Amino acid sequence: MNTVATFPEYASIPLISQRFNISRSTIYRMLGQGDIQAVKVGRITRIVTQSVEAHFSTLPRLKAAA
After folding, report:
1. Are 13 and 5 in contact (CB under 8 A)?
2. Beta carbons of 8 and 47 less than 8 angstroms apart
3. Which pLDDT does position 57 carry in this prediction?
4. What is the distance between the alpha carbons of residues 66 and 36, in angstroms, rounded to a whole number?
């Protein structure tokens, strides 16, 4: 049996914050800049997880110290 939990397609801001180790204010800044996407369900904001992963994949990689 596979015990690895799958991450939801839409996630709350606290869950995204914990999963990607970024602050709540950083998430809102990324939303404001259009770097990531969210949907509103009534008063609740859900972040599109794939948009966060896509954003992180475009960031420059650190080079290994020589």
Report:
1. no
2. no
3. 93
4. 34
Give pLDDT tens digits for 13-31.
999 999 999 999 999 999 9
- In 1-66, alpha helices (H): 13-20, 24-33, 49-58
Distances, alpha carbon 64 to alpha carbons 36, 41, 43, 61, in Å: 28, 43, 44, 9
Question: β-strand 10-11 against 38-41: which pairing, if any?
Answer: unpaired
To 10 degrees, the CA torsion angle through 59, 7, 41, 12? -70
User: Going edge to edge, which strands form the sheet with 38-41?
Assistant: 10-11, 44-48, 38-41
DSSP letter (8 states) at residue 43: T
Side chain identity at residue 44, one-letter code: I
